Amino acid sequence: RRSTKSVRESIFDFIKENGRTYHAYQAGSYLFPNDQPECERMDLQFEILKVLFGGRNYYAPLNDPRRILDIGTGTGKWAIQMGHEFPKAEITGTDLSPIQPEWVPKNVKFIIDDAAEEDWMIKPNYYDYVHTRVLLGCFHDFREVIRKSFRYLKPGAWMESQEYMPTIYCDDGTMGPDYLFAEWTKTQDMAAMNLGKPLRIANKLKRWYEQAGFINVHEEVYKLPINPWPKDPQFKMLGRFSEDSLLDGLQAFSLAWFHRGLGWTKDEIEVYLVNVRKSLSDRSVHAYHKIYVVWGQKPLENGQPPPPPPKPLEVDIYSKADRRYFDFPYAGPSNQH
């Protein structure tokens, strides 16, 4: 008991850098902070995606799963909600930071662990479902996470990834070539590539799943406005929360990346972000992020594919007949990249 406590105390000795704190376990491998402002932003981000997905936590057609793994669980909100939804299942959330609540359902546990390690210390064919969400920039090669998940899933079990594409998109010409928030995105991408932690993984997930051996691979793509520019009330609300999340997170998304990846000082970063924030809040630019949801199934061991999964539930917030997603033509889930 005491040795466990000493280990726990060491992982709470967070690294301080530029006024923010970062994880101590495997220090330096994750470039986003873990302090209270970032935890609150992650909780807001969770709620944004929950609304965007029509109240759903997952898309894979789960059938009485008993062992569920949430890689990079963050504040643990997803794992806790899954614990309530599947009381017979054992939900394990892993993360580099001990920032999860202590009071959780009995069937939910959190472990400080690094999914980048080769051996996950469990036997193969163990999990019924592996879930990842918003892990861009967390790994040198996310294909390795998919490959290892495939190994540790039972035959016929499912993996699912829900991921932001950091690229800024605009469909109606309102975003000019000098739009500062888009420039910031490219600067962050340059820093990420210098550090070997790619951010643009969302649009590659479907291909990577298939290359790893998954079958019945599905992809849905959503558009999430960066601020409340849409006329549609549902997406205006999502845009307002998205703007809050981005403004709250912009410093967190920049400090370690620009400092370690580009050699910028904290003062240089802060001065640069002043005008980036202004551009992010510019309602005249109809910009958005794409959110990718990809899920796939591990084949049965005898080489025979499992029976076809039940048809996924309708994923639109509105009915197919209602195209009021944005001011421009239908922009709901699609397979267009």
Main traits of this protein?
337 residues; alpha/beta; 7-stranded mixed sheet; two-stranded antiparallel sheet; 8 helices; 9 strands; globular; disordered N terminus; disordered C terminus
Notes on the structure:
This protein has a 7-stranded mixed sheet with strand order 5-4-3-6-7-9-8, with helices on both faces. A two-stranded antiparallel sheet has the order 1-2. By secondary structure, the protein is α/β, with parallel strands linked by helices. The termini are far apart. The protein is built from 8 helices and 9 strands. Pfam families: Methyltransf_23. This is S-adenosyl-L-methionine-dependent methyltransferase. One of its GO terms (molecular function) is methyltransferase activity.
Topology:
Layout: H1 2-11, E1 15-17, E2 20-22, H2 36-52, E3 67-71, H3 77-85, E4 90-95, E5 108-112, E6 127-133, H4 142-152, E7 153-170, H5 180-195, H6 205-212, E8 215-225, H7 233-262, H8 266-280, E9 287-297
Parallel strand pairs: 3-4, 3-6, 4-5, 6-7
Antiparallel strand pairs: 1-2, 7-9, 8-9
- Helix percentage range: 25-40%
Number of helices: 8
Lateral arrangement of strands in the main beta sheet: 5-4-3-6-7-9-8
On the 0 to 100 scale, the average pLDDT is 85
How far is the N terminus from the C terminus?
Answer: 51 Å
Number of strands: 9
Radius of gyration: 20 Å
- Which segments are poorly predicted (pLDDT under 50) over 5 or more consecutive residues? 1-7, 312-337
- Beta strand %: 15-25%
Order of helices and strands: HEEHEHEEEHEHHEHHE
Query: Structural class of the helices, strands and pairings?
Result: alpha/beta
Spatial shape: globular
